[in-house]
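#data-curation
PF: Archiving a pair of folding outputs for the training set. Convention for this channel: one message per protein, sequence first, structure tokens after, nothing in between. First:
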Amino acid sequence: MIGLALKTLRFHKGGLIATFIALFFGAAIVVGCGGLFETGLHKAAPPERLAAAQVVVTGDQRYPGTRRDVFPERIRVDTALMERIEAVPGVTGTAADVSFPAAVLDDRQGGAPLTGHGWSSAALAPYHVEQGEAPSAAGEVALDARFARQNGVRVGQELRLALRGTPGTHRVTALVSGPGSLDPATVFLTDTEAAEATGRPGRADAIGVFTAPGTALGPVQQAIEEVVGDGPAQVLSGDERGWAENPDVIAEGGKLVTLASVFGGLSAAVTVFVVASTVGLSLNQRQRESALLRAIGATPAQLRRMVLGETLFIAVFATALACFPGPVIGRWLLDAFARGGVVPETIAFRAGFVPMAVGVATALLTALGAAFLGARVATRTRPTEALAEASLQQRWFSRSRLVFALLFLGGGTALALVTANIAGPSAGSTAIPATMLWTAGFGLLGPGLAKVITAALRGPLSAVTGLAGWLASLNAKARTSRFTGAVMPVMLASGLAMALIYLQTTQSSGAERAFRENLRADLVVTSVSGGLPLDLVGTVARQPGVEAASAQVSTIGYIDPPAPAKPAPGSGDEDDEPDEPEPTEVPMLGVTPDGLDRTTAFRASSGSLAELTGDTVALPTAFAEASGHELGDEVPMRLGDGTRTELTLVATLDGRRGYETALLPAAVLVPHTDSGLLPQIMVKAEPGADRAELAGTLSALAADHPGLRVADRAALTVVQAEADETQTWMSYLLLGMVVGYATIALVNTQVIATTERRREFMLQRLIGSTRRQVMQMMAVEAFLVAVAGIVLGVVVAALTLVPLSISVLGSPVPDGSPWIFVAVAGAALGLTLATTLLSARLVLRGKPGEMAGVRE
């Protein structure tokens, strides 16, 4: 039978090509996402500025005892380690690297931001001197040659620089250049002045280790690890050295695993629907052939082998070819994520054999599963009933189909309930899988639902379109399987598009509302020099026209879990390892209590925010209750740089679920951020004060604080919108990939559903129908297919979006323009009509007599 299958493939080119296209694109996307997954596991980041160091010692950004939780602020290492590391056999030297914010304050450079380093770290790239001599005394700097050329800076020129917010005059003694793509906005100071500029003398971001040529790195790295000990540090070599340059790689690389799983999983699920629909439709077009084989004695097993054999033959070629564009798609996705700010640009694409094998296996299993399901329809009919069954193609219901449909719909219902009751920012994580479950459930019940929709439209269509509408409705009624196979891709494309677009607009609206509800300030004070001193808050508050001012610095911290209970002596469980409890991640906002109630909407539900001084904290009520802490308790916490502290709980806060924030005194939080400076000061104007005049008054403070900038409330909203763009961009990329593939399937299916009807069109032409009448009938059929698919897509989208909107907005109505629905429905209708009519026109090009020999 397999030989027969291969011989008959050339008579079913339409089904073959459609299945090939569906498998090829599906496998390519899954292979690409598999490469992304492996890239996220490796987190490879080839070093640039530390490339000359064979080994790098840097802080371990991971929460102790976990691999998932990562501190957002840089953890630094003690420079006292350098002397002990240099004593390791094979090590020829070390160099400490520190980074700090700087800015050129000359008017000509317009406050251009720079990154400062100590001169000894120039050897880590390595940089080399193009002109002049290296800085050797305080007040001397070496400037990146590319930045100097861009801004017209020469050796010997005096520059006004702000180092960590402190202005001063420095002389350029050298222009230096480094390898390839290094950031040109770099300035080098003497090591002593650089250590002072960091505000953390004796601490380094990283220690680069140089080894003798030919030295084996394994033993050296192991020896250095013994020197470092169990402290919060890690010893890196190879591509992992890039972690020291950009600690975000550790956290964002893990995010890449999640993104690849979501993209790949959703793409694989769509592939299942697309391939199952395409193969099923192709088999439905060949039911007369299957019926004849059954009538002349072919067994069900033989027919199944024939169908599986020809599908496997197509699938092997499609998936083999998909292995070539798969890695290209993976690299393209990684580059797109990097450009959108989702992951650091330093992450390198690393994909081996495993993701390719997984993608191929997924595509093959999908194809064989779809073919097996389609073959069951062709083989379960008795030989005496086969020809009659093939002529109608109405049978669709089975007990197994109903059971699986109910399972999928039940899963969708469960996820919908979860979505409606979790925090708004997390609602999308369950809403997207729910979409696929709803799609699967309605896909299995599709024939019945399509019949109901067609029956409801039959009367109006016949009244409006006459004979064409009557014939189209009869075709849909008589050929249920074919009609449903055409409807399902429309449902998939329109349902996914509406669900994913409105999901994003709703979540963006929720984040914007939370931001606006909390914003009470009229102006914000920032600085291009890296930050502001904390004592400037009081100065701003005393300016004429200022009602209140408060510091604001944000980061992420953790509430330490309670220590696991030890087994009681004699209980027999002394040898059992207790489960390590997980820390609770909590957004942190450093503030000054004076003016907090007027610049923000934070209000204490218990306790007082005025007591936020010293080592204190105000926790969201939900976090306080979950951790079992009450007012006056000492709360063990980890700050953004991993520093462990105990803070007294002085207040609890109520806030929008999912957007809760812990408040700490800015004086506690600022020293544990990367810059060690205050990023912004929120200002509330007095009633009736002219805000433009007040902005001018505050801008005058730049005389004592160079680089100071003042922006209005609208600028704050723009910054928030830009921060939300990353999530928005990522969602639309997902939408483009998945819906684009579903759209290909839509076009693919409509073409095969139309071109396989040559005999039917021939009979209509022979009994007197004109081309125009056949085209009118096909236009009405295409309209029926599109409307049925769009209606089912709307149902899928609604069942996904209503619980999401309840979670995010507190309302069952999602946020977003109604034109989104109009655009999606119009695109689905237009594509269905266009592909159907173009295919029908190609079929009808010949004369009726010439079509008499057409095979079915």
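PF: Second:
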Amino acid sequence: MFVGLSVLHAQVRPNTNNQNVTIDSLQRDTIPTDTSKNNFKDVNGQDTVHMNNEGGLETVVTITANDSSWNEVSKNILHLYKGAKVKYEGFELAADYIRLDRNTNVLFATGVIDHNGKYVGRPVVIMPGESPIAVDSLLYNYKTQVPKTFGVMTEVDGGYIQAREVRKNIYDEMSLYQGLYSTCNLPYPHTHFGIQITKGVITQKQIIAGPSYLVVENIPIKFLAIPFGFFPKQDKKSSGFLFPSFGEDAARGFAMRDLGWYLTFNDYWDSEIRGTLYSKGTWEANIRTQYLVNYKFNGNFALQYGSYVQGVEGTDSFGREKNFRFTWNHSQRQEANPGTSFSASVNFGSRNAYRNAATTGQYNPMEAINNRMGSSIAYGKVFADGKVNFTANMSHDQNLSTGDLTLDLPTISLNVATFNPFDSKDRIGEQKWYQRITVGYSLQGQNRIQTKDSLLFRKESIRDFTNGIQHNIPVSLSLNVMKYFQFNTSFNYTERWYLQSVRNRLTNEPYGFKAVKDTLQGFKRAYDYSVSTGLSTKIYGQMNRKIGKVEAMRHTITPSINVNYRPDFSDPRYNFYRDFTDENGVYKRYSIFENGVYGTPGAGKSFGIGFSVDNNLEAKIRNDKDTTGTGVKKVPIIQGLTFSGNYNVAADSLKLSQISFSGRTALFDKKVNVNFNGSFDPYSYDRYTGTRIDRFAIKDGKLARLTNFGLSFDYSLNPKANENRSENIDSLRSSMPNLTPEQAQALARISTDPNAFVDFNIPWNLAGSFSMNYNQVFSREKMQMETRITSTVNVHGDFNVTPKWKVQFNTGYDFVQKEASMSQISIYRDLHCWDMSVGWVPFGRYKSYNITIRAKASILQDLKLTKRQSHFTY
């Protein structure tokens, strides 16, 4: 903390609070008022004075005053008022009152008391080679360059040092009188926690402090005073001990949390090693490292390992479980390497890593219910003036509930921007029809494995990877036809390269024949192509009849129809499909690329007619807030209501596809967003197998069968809350290289959890979402179609009890499972330079509470008091 005194004349934060200030008794000279002009010379604007410096050279002193400048000739004293400035060599001074005494070579600067009784216009001074300093008043001998300042305030990494008086001698040593180190930036901290320093001397390499004692809530605790202190000044970070916190857990026993050691290696990276130990045997260790290269890149990675006691000792459920988790985040500044990007977000671990670790050191019960982990490492490069774009990505997706794991190592993509091969740069006039033909190219490559997390690190897993490369060449042409129609035609060629293919065969087992699928290694290629031609247009309908506040309604219909053709690539001449008779004597045709990462060429000839209809309906409603009486606002009623399907002329049965539909709308002045989608099947199904049969449902008395339907809506009764949250997230991201670990963790939380952001400027917010899904699934046990419905609701919000008290809540309910999701109530109190937070999970498996009081200053993040009680059952 005393190291911060070394920058007393650097990085000073000006004191702009309008507090009543009494000028120190040492400043006995009164500020003259403009009552008489005897012996004074009235000067406005800028003046210059020529003086000789120590070397005998003439130096220019620039003097400026916005209000007036009075020269008291008889005393050889100059008075400057309102916005006064003095510049002399490397010294600059600005204040609302400056007095220059030419007899003693002393400048005196101070603020003034305005008509409201506020002390304004405090001096701001720049010493040679130093940063600006804000003070209450200043005496400066411009010959000896020795300053004496009163009411100094400086900021040190979020902490503040204030001193009643500071003197600086010719040896660049500073003497401090009645100093205070605190977390509050007010001249008189109202809730400060600080160190009172009676006297101190600051040199270039050391700090010597006289009697010092602790002050809490303006109460001096002098029995904890130290009579003398000597502290070396360090210009770099230093390693040190990280003090733990103590507590108790209902299942794990007494705890010593986050005991550790901080390691700093250089200006670019540092680490901290922490450990947590419980009296009943559970322990956890983690190491977190951060790195930063200014203007180039920054990031952090962490490794966490723990051994957790489960169950109750003496029962069958008692045991020990070991988990690990690795995270890595990296971001690169765009300007560091234009045209190239690299980023990483890795989160990988064992299945129960979230559940166990979330309730130990970094207590976060919301994380305990997370059931997925995902990672992504991405590299990108742009070539040929932005016409060619290459990306490579490695990713992983892990389901913690089932243990399913998908790894892509890697996925690559190369895309070439579409171009007009028959057009010319020297063309004169409009494009001819053939010059409108566009061609593109894209390449994708993938190496993927899908397995269980417990089987990943086996030697045999290397053979479970599937890989492939896909090339795609689209050729298209778009023209306007008969003024009102848009004509589009396209040809699409796709080729796939695989290193594996499959073969089905029968083996003779003791109990009969058994079907076996073999995977053969070796290069194979598969290709397909298709042709499509279509027309589309727009139809507008307008209703100008007034109905209540509705002035008019507009309906926009966008119908389109296309004809598409694709050959039958299961034909033996392509050699992509094989015939096979299984152990039950059932004949079928299968693709040798059926496990390919990019699929297989389609079986069956397709000559179809595709159709779709898109609808948008909006109304113009009179705006009562418009005092002119002519204002209207557009209100969407239905947006993107689309029906689409396809009719395959070449198919021998089931020629009509399912009819899919989707749409959205907004209600209550766009506070509620509604989305829906689904599909209709025009055919009936077999009562014994559940498969579609070639019989239209209308013959059974139904126009079509609704096979699935999804409805969701989210709402916010205060949209400004979401807007403000987005703006603050953008602001935090812009300062990412300078974030503390706690701030970086907070940014990650509020990016995904709206309720993790505390904004006292928004008095209230209430938001929520509802989702419902309906599906028809055939049950072989009951030999009939069954309806399956999922329905959940989630609500979150907050409100200000007072301008400094904020209450947040979030909860949810599953109507099908008939149980509530984890509910949490959070209370925040803004203590100006401190924060207080209370978290409470009132019921459920993660029932608990925690109370934390901590300093806001980033350098004092470990200065906190935490009380926690958990009833989590492990």
